[in-house]
Specification:
Distance between the termini: 26 Å
Mean pLDDT: 88
Number of helices: 8
Largest sheet: 5 strands, parallel
Helix content: 25-40%
Strand content: 15-25%
Number of strands: 13
Order of helices and strands: EHEHEEEHEHEHEEEEHHHEE
Low-confidence stretches: 221-227
Length: 227
């Protein structure tokens, strides 16, 4: 999931980014409104928005977010805990409200719920044929057997799982792996696709030439799988 974190506290921002990275979230950080507006050239599934920013109120970012082709889910993160503050934020267009100090596991759980709603799922688990992804446990099983995955491999599997049967472009898969300030190897997607095929079966991921890749739900049911 691609997430924009708008937060002026560098220590808190670092803690949030590090924690969410374990959930395969690619988190871009903006320390103020100006930087947040500059980030809106890309599309985000969720925005974690502080209200008290150095150059104004985080609420002023909401109109720009709502005008996007696919508006992100907005979770306000703030120390302003009065009822009137919460009502004002929700009425302005935010979807959720988390008061500081908050627990990182709770924030992570709320983002997983956002991912479920955006993909139209009811179950917390994702099923792709014989492959079952449990985002809460960060666990992937093939035919009931746990598959060991690196953080990047898990991020790609989750990206496919959140948009089953859709063709994902190379750029979309790169976004699942890296944030703006990370350097990507030119063929990084191809490298990880190759690794996943070795673990889930050579037919598990289809290459759609000139377009991208899609998960082959039927392909993982074959038993020539290296675990």
């Amino acid at each position: 999931m691609r997430v924009l974190l708008v937060e002026d506290d560098a220590v808190l921002a670092s803690a949030v980014r590090d924690y969410l990275a374990r959930d395969a979230c690619a988190v871009d950080w903006a320390a103020n409104l100006a930087a947040a507006h500059a980030c809106l050239v890309t599309s985000y599934a969720a925005v974690l928005l502080d209200l008290g920013l150095p150059d104004g109120s985080g609420l002023s970012l909401l109109p720009s977010l709502m005008r996007q082709a696919e508006p992100p889910t907005v979770v306000i993160l703030t120390a302003q805990d009065r009822l009137s503050d919460r009502v004002r934020g929700l009425d302005a267009g935010a979807d959720d409200y988390l008061v500081k100090p908050f627990d990182l596991p709770e924030l992570s759980a709320r983002l997983r719920a956002i991912a479920r709603r955006r993909s139209g799922r009811r179950s917390p688990r994702i099923e792709l044929g014989d492959v079952v992804i449990d985002p809460a446990l960060r666990e992937v099983r093939l035919g009931g057997i746990a598959v060991e995955l690196t953080a990047h491999e898990y991020a790609l599997v989750l990206a496919f799982g959140e948009q089953p049967r859709r063709v994902l472009s190379r750029g979309q898969l790169e976004e699942a792996l890296y944030t703006f300030d990370a350097t990507a190897i030119s063929n990084v997607v191809e490298v990880y696709i190759s690794r996943l095929r070795r673990k889930f079966g050579r037919d598990s991921i289809r290459t759609i030439r000139g377009v991208g890749y899609s998960w082959n739900v039927e392909g993982t049911a074959e038993r020539g799988v290296a675990r």
